[in-house]
Amino acid sequence: MDRLTVISGALFVAADVFAIISLAMPDWIVTEVGGDTKLGLMWTCMTLYNRPQVCFTPDLQIEWLIALICIFVGCVCVTTTIILLVASHWDRNVIPYARWVGFTAMVLFSLAAVIFPLGFHVDEIGGQPYQLPNSYHVGLSYIFFVLALWITVISELFAGKVCLPHF
What does the angle CA 118 – CA 16 – CA 55 come to, to the nearest 5 degrees? Predict the structure, then answer.
């Protein structure tokens, strides 16, 4: 494997880790009003008036459900890209497939990043699409997801350099 393939693979691994961590944590939207509330795509956790924290699986609005599906499928695409990049050690012909699967992951992550803020109108938040109320802010999970998106874009740039014709 050449150096660009290794760099691209390592960046795709980092993007996959950040995306999976962002899904596992409930810190997508947080507020400290009336206790500590953490809204996530897979978990929502609330701590009311110094009581023990209660976590549950939320009933997602359609916007957040679509974002969750895009992120999950994007993670599958990134993992497939990593496997294809490792397989390119033995067969260089799979690199273009890795590039296209990585590109698909990048598109899915970008789509999720655009769709997720549409769901700020949910009853728990009470905002408008793309506009959170002042008492709410994005949490660490959302920041990890955006980081995963940017690392995926950079990884795809490295993968694109690998796929250029060699004369």
Answer: 60
Q: How confident is the model at residue 56 (pLDDT cuts 50, 70, 90)?
A: very high
Contact, 25 vs 143, CB < 8 A? no
**pLDDT per residue as tens digits for the range 58-104:** 999 999 999 999 999 999 999 999 999 999 989 989 988 999 999 99
Radius of gyration of the chain (CA): 18
Report domain 3-162's class.
mainly alpha
The one-letter amino acid at 106: M
Supply the pTM of this predicted model: 0.90
How far is 76 from 15, CA to CA, in rounded Å?
12
> Any idea what the Cα angle at residue 118 is, between residues 117 and 124, rounded to 5°?
80
In DSSP terms, 55 is beta-bridged to 45
